[in-house]
C-alpha cells in the first residue's frame, strides 16, 4: 500500500502539472519521495521540483506538512453554533487539513483518537476520520463522473437503496459516500432521471424473471423427486407375508 503522504504528494503533482509529460511527473514524484524520506533537504526539493515542473507548489505543500509542530491547536471556539436550530460544524481550515495529513503520516490509520489529539482545536476522532475519508484521501476521485460510473451508481442504488451510501461508496472504490449521495440527487433532477427509471425497471424485470425461473426449477425438481418416488414404489417387489 502506498504511504499516505506520498499519495498526497502525487495528487499535488497532478494538480500542478496538468500539461507535463509523464516522465517529468515521475521525476517530481521521486524528488518528493526523497524529501519525505529525509534524503534531501527542503531547499533541494524546492529547486528540483521547480526545474522539473516549472512550479514548486507540490514541494512547498509537502514541506509545510513535514514541518508541522507536534503541539496541537488550542481549542479556541465551539465546534457547533448552539444559537442555531441546527448544528453547523465549523469548516476545516487549511492549517487543520495540514495537521490532519501530518497526523495520518506520523500516526497511521490505526488510532483516530490520537490523530484528533494531534490536530487539536477540539476536533473529534469522528470528524478527523470523516474529513480524511470524504475530503482529503487522495484515492477519492475529483474528476467528472463518467457514464460507466453513473451506470454503476444507479445499479448500486437500485440494489441497496438510498440509505446505504457507505456501502455503495465502498463498491464504487474511488468515490466517497457524500459524492455518491450528492451525485445521485443531481442525476434525479437532471435529464438523466429517465435513465434511472429505465435501469431500475430493467433490474426489477430481471429480478422477476430470475424469481420465476428459480421457482420453476424448484417446482420441476420437486416433480422429478415425486416421479422418482412413484417409480421406486412401482419397481419395489411386494414383501411376502410371514404368518
Automatic annotation (TrEMBL):
One GO cellular component term noted in the UniProt record for this chain = snRNA-activating protein complex
Keyword Lipoprotein found: no
Its keywords, alphabetically, are:
DNA-binding, Nucleus, Transcription, Transcription regulation
| Domain Myb-like: from-to ranges | 91-136, 137-188
Name a single GO biological process: snRNA transcription by RNA polymerase II
- All copies of domain HTH myb-type, residue ranges: 90-134, 137-192
Lineage top rank: taxon: Eukaryota
SANT domain: which residues? Answer: 87-128, 140-192
Q: Which CDD domains match?
A: SANT
One molecular function GO term is:
RNA polymerase II cis-regulatory region sequence-specific DNA binding
The record's listing under PANTHER family reads:
SNRNA-ACTIVATING PROTEIN COMPLEX SUBUNIT 4 (PTHR46621:SF1)
This protein is called what? Answer: Myb-like DNA-binding domain containing protein
Amino acid at each position: 500500500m502506498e504511504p499516505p503522504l506520498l499519495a498526497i504528494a502525487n495528487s499535488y503533482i497532478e494538480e500542478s502539472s496538468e500539461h507535463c509529460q509523464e516522465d517529468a511527473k515521475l521525476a517530481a514524484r521521486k524528488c518528493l519521495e526523497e524529501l519525505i524520506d529525509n534524503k534531501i533537504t527542503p531547499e533541494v526539493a524546492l529547486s528540483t521540483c521547480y526545474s522539473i515542473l516549472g512550479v514548486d507548489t507540490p514541494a512547498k505543500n509537502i514541506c509545510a506538512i513535514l514541518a508541522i509542530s507536534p503541539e496541537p491547536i488550542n481549542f479556541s471556539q465551539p465546534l457547533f453554533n448552539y444559537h442555531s436550530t441546527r448544528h453547523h460544524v465549523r469548516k476545516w481550515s487549511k492549517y487543520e487539513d495540514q495537521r490532519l495529513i501530518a497526523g495520518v503520516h506520523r500516526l497511521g490509520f490505526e488510532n483516530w483518537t490520537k490523530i484528533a489529539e494531534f490536530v487539536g482545536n477540539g476536533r473529534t476522532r469522528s470528524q478527523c476520520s470523516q474529513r480524511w475519508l470524504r475530503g482529503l484521501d487522495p484515492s477519492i476521485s475529483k474528476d467528472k463522473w463518467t457514464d460507466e460510473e453513473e451506470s454503476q451508481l444507479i445499479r448500486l442504488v437500485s440494489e441497496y437503496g438510498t440509505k446505504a451510501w457507505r456501502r455503495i461508496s465502498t463498491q464504487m472504490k474511488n468515490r466517497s459516500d457524500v459524492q455518491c449521495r450528492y451525485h445521485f440527487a443531481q442525476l434525479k433532477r437532471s435529464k438523466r432521471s429517465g435513465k434511472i427509471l429505465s435501469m431500475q425497471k430493467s433490474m426489477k424485470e430481471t429480478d422477476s424473471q430470475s424469481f420465476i425461473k428459480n421457482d420453476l426449477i424448484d417446482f420441476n425438481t420437486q416433480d422429478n423427486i415425486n416421479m422418482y418416488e412413484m417409480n421406486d414404489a412401482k419397481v419395489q417387489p411386494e414383501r411376502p407375508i410371514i404368518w
